[in-house]
Amino acid sequence: AESKVKVFRTKTDLVSSDTLAGLEVQLKDVRDRISTMKQLDSDALARMDAIKSASSREDLAQVLQDPQLTRLLPQLASARMANAFDTRVAQITNRAEGQVLRGATQMNALETSQAELETQIARQSDDLITLQQLSREAEASRLLYEYFLGRFKETSAQQGIQQADSRVLSSAVVPTLPASPNRPVIVILSALFGLGVGSVLVLLREARTDTFRTSEKLEDLTGYPVMGQISTLPTRRRKDAVAYLVKKPMSAAAEAVRNLRTSVVLSNVTDPPQVIVTCSSLPGEGKTTVAIALAQNMAGMGKRVLLIEGDIRRRTMQTMISGDDRGGLMSVITEKMMLEDAVVPSLDFGADVLLGGQVNMNAADAFSSDAFSNMLDDARAQYDHIIIDTPPVLIVPDARIIAQSADALLFVVKWDATRTWQVENALAMFESVQQKISGFVLNQINPGRMRRYGETGQFYDSRNAHGRKYYVN
């Protein structure tokens, strides 16, 4: 195979990819020159046709665009000038014909060179492919030969080794325990290592935690009281939460809502709050559920309660309660409907509900209008308590606007989820409009996990333990 490669290299010109690349560059240059030459020849032929088709000296002067002919054109009345004009025309015509002939000659030479280069490139490409194929075959044969030669030498060396004689001195004793690895020691060390690493990870996670797990932390950070602590309801769907509170009025969750109601009502004994607003920092913290639960609890006392969906941008309340959307809050604000006509009596928990309705204007502008204030005045005259669910404070300004008309403002914080900076920023937004909250609601508490954290966790765990005699979950 190697001899074939040598013979092929001897019979053919030196072939390499660099040589082919150089020839391709030359071919491209020749093609570019041919393209340029064709354009020049076309221009020269067009000029000759224009000269031949000219029928007068004026046409010749216009076609040739020669300064001398242009200067002689007004003097053609003189015979000498006419002869000079014709002589100049003949010179220019002869030069143009010579240019056409030279262009044709150069074009033939370039086309011949192009054909030779294409033939040479095709031939050398085939030669290069053949050379590469022969080289690969030679390399494969050489590797196969070296492999068999090594195996042959290995076999020859093994044949010269003599088998040593041996005799049994004593029988081996079968061990009852493995000598290695020492599994008990490995298990103990692994357990200690895992305990150490786990402890470090837990400490690091606890050090980096900036959520609220106890009411003390929330009160110490903000200076506002925690008016209620509500555990996670044992339901999968949001709509089932209302049904659970209605069907389980003696459950721990219902008692927690009842404690929240008591704290809100007794926060001002002389003038109990009538308009109560619920808000939160971000979506998903349970403020809508708290508002519905509070409305259901107050309605259970025989009070006339109106629940208003103030979060008209998302309109999630209609997925949690049953009732027809007769027009909603926006219809009342835009004075298309009266409050009595837009209110939907809820069959779920006995309170009246005013849903958001179709939004045809900016929500912040709607809540800042006099129509919204007039609507609240009408509601105050008809209902004992008005509960308004508002959008998140950090997302839109609606809550701060609605809070100006509130008697009590409840800030819902999701247990072990809401960040401290979110609460601080939300409170700063309320303080920027001289609005203070009435208290916090620590919501969606996990009782099993809360008992691990602080005195509040112990208190919550103890309350649940003794509360089994009073709660019917």
Précis, in short:
This protein is α/β, with parallel strands linked by helices and 473 residues long. The chain has helices at 2-11, 17-53, 57-64, 67-72, 79-159, 183-208, 215-222, 238-247, 252-265, 287-299, 328-333, 339-342, 363-367, 370-382, 398-403, 420-432, 447-450, 454-467; strands at residues 226-231, 275-280, 305-309, 344-345, 352-354, 385-389, 408-414, 439-445. The longest helix is centred in the N-terminal third of the chain and has 81 residues, at 79-159.
- Return the average pLDDT rounded to an integer: 83
Query: What integer value in Å does the Rg equal?
Result: 49 Å
Question: Mind describing the biggest β-sheet?
Answer: 8 strands, mixed
Find the structural class using helix and strand composition: alpha/beta
Distance between the termini: 90 Å
Strand order of the largest sheet: 1-8-7-2-6-3-5-4
Strand content: 5-15%
Number of helices: 18
Q: Which shape, going by the Cα principal axes?
A: flat
Q: Which regions contain 5 or more consecutive residues with pLDDT less than 50?
A: 455-459
Output the helix-strand order: HHHHHHHEHHEHEHHEEHHEHEHEHH
